[in-house]
């Protein structure tokens, strides 16, 4: 076929190298290292049509990888990006991409370590709330892609005899994420998300705990009342309501069980419950 | 949903034009049910457990044939294929019954992690053996024939001993895989490598092509001022690429043809118009082929 079309290995694939010294494993290891290290020169033997090495051509791959990952982070952390500005975000993301390239081909999972990276990133230290806003945005992404489950209706929960409530164990929707913060992260997020006009948020107004969940098609973020974050975390760990209530009260003396449960029902985050085996009413 | 998907018109790929499914168009598609041949999705974008991507894809899949296009399997890597990733692909195939599954002649994974790009390969006997071994494993694990896509490349490896077209033909011969001919990649690679694109297409094993990709590229230049085209998927298909597409269709007749537009995604009507152009062009050429069968054999 080569002879009939006039296409030879040297016109289509580069000149022949008799000894073939450079094996595929070495090639790919060198290539990968040079992609992630911008000061490293391209590996030898990568050539343009004139047979000469070309930095610019190698830079296309380097750029595709690094810029592609920065774009992935931009899409996953829109509020962090808005808070620090385009240029700052790109510079910070570039350092993260090189320090923690993806471990898997699933890009929707990429960037889990970005909030922790922001915590360690000194130029961002003046925005003390930034890592927590990052954790909130990560929770949003995780909730968006979490497994499906059907929330229980208030009526279904109404069948439980009041005397059984303390020993009930609740199953929360798989999308539920709880982000606790010493800063008003929900207010900051709401003021900066989408096309929202970033109003002023009083950073010293006190901390907010966020409930992030996707019970139906949309991810919803709400502010939790005092102690409810600790209460829900205990429930999710399998504690019966009475034990979780103690955790809530320990976190805040203002914790109110009725308010917390009503909030969970309104947020559609309860998908099942168990009663103690002896007096079981059947799990939902 | 399973009942709808068992219908033959949804499980076989029509010889029509389709488009890459983008989140921006989910609602328009469901609200207007546009007349389009098929949709294609990147497998990795649907590897979350649940959520809106699966809700929309399930609803769209009930109405249209689907092609599943992997971008993360790293078939050209020297290291073994990721078994977990193969398992995830199998799950997606079981769930959505795509008519076609395709992946790339490229690599992207290494010891330090995953590089989010389709990186080029030296065309040597060693690479050939590794790629064929991996294609065999993919077809075994997925229980079906896969299509392999030709790459867009920006540089060549000095140690290559095969032409790209012969390399691909040999993979097909040894593994029995089918081919996804990316015509934009042909133009990009041929410009960047100073190859003749018509000679490339004529040397390419066209009879194994089961799908075609069309997309837009971004023009640039290397440090010597030679053209350097970037496979950007961010604009309309270039006139040169339409010409090469026509050349391929004259040879093999209508093929499921995808418009890929992944960045600066346009409004739905713009994408639809590109697909209509591909379909009209295929119909015109097919008409000529049918009226003048002798022309068919003249090539």
Q: State Rg of chain B.
A: 19 Å
The dominant shape of chain A is elongated
Which class of secondary structure composition applies to the elements of chain A?
Answer: mainly alpha
**What does the overall shape of chain B look like?**
globular
Just give the CATH class of chain B. Alpha Beta
| Largest interface, chains and sizes | A-B, 66 and 72 residues
Strand content of chain B: 15-25%
Arithmetic mean pLDDT of chain A: 89
- End-to-end span of chain A in angstroms? 68 Å
Strand order, sheet with most strands of chain B: 1-2-3-4-7-9-10-13
What's the overall average pLDDT of chain B, rounded? 94
CATH architecture of chain B: Alpha-Beta Barrel
Low-pLDDT segments, ≥5 res of chain A: 1-21
Task: Summarize the SSE layout with pairings.
The complex is a heterodimer of chains A (284) and B (299).
Chain A: H1 2-5, H2 9-12, H3 24-36, E1 46-47, H4 55-76, H5 78-84, H6 86-99, H7 114-120, H8 130-145, H9 154-158, E2 169-172, E3 177-180, H10 185-192, E4 209-213, E5 220-224, H11 228-236, H12 241-251, H13 257-266, E6 270-274
Antiparallel strand pairs in A: 2-6, 3-4, 4-5
Chain B: H1 2-5, H2 8-11, E1 17-20, H3 26-32, E2 39-42, H4 52-61, E3 66-69, H5 83-96, E4 100-104, E5 107-110, E6 113-119, H6 125-142, E7 147-149, E8 156-157, H7 164-175, E9 178-182, H8 183-193, H9 197-203, E10 209-214, E11 218-221, E12 227-230, H10 239-252, E13 257-259, H11 268-291, H12 293-298
Parallel strand pairs in B: 1-2, 1-13, 2-3, 3-4, 4-7, 7-9, 9-10, 10-13
Antiparallel strand pairs in B: 5-6, 11-12
Helix pairs in contact in B: 3-4, 6-7, 10-11
Structure overview:
The complex is a heterodimer of chains A (284) and B (299). The N and C termini of chain A lie far apart (68 Å). Helices cover 46% and strands 9% of the residues of chain A. Chain A has 284 residues and is mainly α. In chain A, α4 crosses α6, α5 crosses α6 and α11 (228-236) runs antiparallel to α12 (241-251). Chain A is elongated and about 85 Å long. Chain A has a 3-stranded antiparallel beta sheet, sandwiched between helices. In chain A, strands 2-6 form a two-stranded antiparallel ribbon. The longest helix of chain A is centred in the first third of the chain and has 22 residues, at 55-76. Chain A folds into 2 domains: 19-127, no CATH class; 129-284. Chain B has 299 residues and is α/β, with parallel strands linked by helices. Chain B has a single domain (2-298), classed as Divalent-metal-dependent TIM barrel enzymes (TIM Barrel, Alpha-Beta Barrel). Helices cover 44% and strands 18% of the residues of chain B. Chain B contains 12 helices and 13 strands. In chain B, the strands form 3 sheets. Chain B has an 8-stranded parallel beta barrel with strand order 1-2-3-4-7-9-10-13. In chain B, α5 (83-96) links the parallel β3 (66-69) and β4 (100-104). The longest helix of chain B has 24 residues, at 268-291. The mean pLDDT of chain B is 94. The chains are: A mainly alpha (284), B alpha/beta (299). The interface between A and B is large, with 66 and 72 residues. β1 (46-47) of chain A pairs antiparallel with β8 (156-157) of chain B.
């Amino acid at each position: 076929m080569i002879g009939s079309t006039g296409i030879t290995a040297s016109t289509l694939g580069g000149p022949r190298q008799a000894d073939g010294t450079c094996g595929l494993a070495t090639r790919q290891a060198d290539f990968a290292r040079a992609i992630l290290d911008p000061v490293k020169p391209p590996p030898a033997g990568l050539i343009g049509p004139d047979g000469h090495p070309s930095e610019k051509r190698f830079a296309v791959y380097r750029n595709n990888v690094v810029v592609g990952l920065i774009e992935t982070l931009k899409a996953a952390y829109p509020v962090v990006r808005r808070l620090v500005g385009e240029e700052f975000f790109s510079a910070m993301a570039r350092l993260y991409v090189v320090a923690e390239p993806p471990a898997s081909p699933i890009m929707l999972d990429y960037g889990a370590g970005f909030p922790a990276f922001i915590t360690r990133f000194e130029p961002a230290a003046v925005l003390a709330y930034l890592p927590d806003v990052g954790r909130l945005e990560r929770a949003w992404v995780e909730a968006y892609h979490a497994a499906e489950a059907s929330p229980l209706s208030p009526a279904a929960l109404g069948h439980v005899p009041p005397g059984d409530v303390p020993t009930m164990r609740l199953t929360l929707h798989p999308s539920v994420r709880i982000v606790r913060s010493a800063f008003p992260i929900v207010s900051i997020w709401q003021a900066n998300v989408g096309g929202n006009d970033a109003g002023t948020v009083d950073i010293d107004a006190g901390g907010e705990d966020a409930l992030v969940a996707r019970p139906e098609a949309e991810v919803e973020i709400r502010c939790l009342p005092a102690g409810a974050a600790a209460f829900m975390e205990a429930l999710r760990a399998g504690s019966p309501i009475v034990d979780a209530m103690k955790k809530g009260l320990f976190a805040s003396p203002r914790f109110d069980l009725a308010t917390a449960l009503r909030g969970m029902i309104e947020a559609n985050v309860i998908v099942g419950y168990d009663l103690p085996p002896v007096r079981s009413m059947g799990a939902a | 949903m399973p009942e709808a998907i068992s219908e033959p018109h949804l499980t076989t790929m029509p010889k029509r034009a389709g488009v890459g499914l983008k989140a921006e168009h989910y609602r328009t598609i469901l609200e207007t049910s546009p007349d389009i041949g098929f949709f294609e999705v990147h497998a990795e974008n649907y590897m979350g457990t649940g959520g809106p991507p699966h809700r929309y894809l399930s609803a769209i899949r009930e109405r249209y044939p689907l092609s599943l296009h992997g971008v993360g399997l790293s078939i050209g890597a020297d290291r073994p294929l990721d078994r977990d990733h193969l398992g995830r692909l199998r799950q997606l195939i079981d769930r959505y019954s795509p008519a076609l599954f395709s992946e790339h002649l490229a690599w992207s994974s290494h010891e330090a992690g995953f590089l989010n790009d389709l990186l080029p390969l030296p065309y040597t006997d060693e690479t050939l053996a590794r790629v064929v071994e991996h294609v065999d494993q993919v077809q075994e694990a997925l229980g079906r024939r896969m299509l392999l896509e030709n790459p867009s490349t920006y540089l060549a490896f000095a140690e290559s001993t095969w032409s790209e077209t012969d390399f691909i033909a040999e993979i097909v011969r040894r593994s029995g895989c089918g081919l996804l001919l990316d015509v934009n990649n042909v133009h990009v690679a041929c410009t960047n490598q100073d190859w003749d694109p018509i000679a490339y297409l004529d040397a390419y094993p066209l009879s194994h092509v089961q799908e075609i990709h069309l997309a837009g590229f971004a023009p640039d230049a290397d440090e010597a001022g030679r053209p350097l085209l970037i496979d950007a998927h961010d604009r309309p298909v270039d006139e040169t690429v339409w010409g090469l597409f026509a050349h391929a269709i004259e040879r093999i007749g209508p093929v499921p043809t995808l418009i890929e537009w992944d960045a600066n995604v346009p409004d739905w009507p713009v994408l639809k118009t590109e697909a209509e152009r591909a379909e009209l062009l295929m119909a015109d050429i097919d008409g000529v082929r049918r009226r003048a069968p002798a022309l068919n054999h003249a090539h």
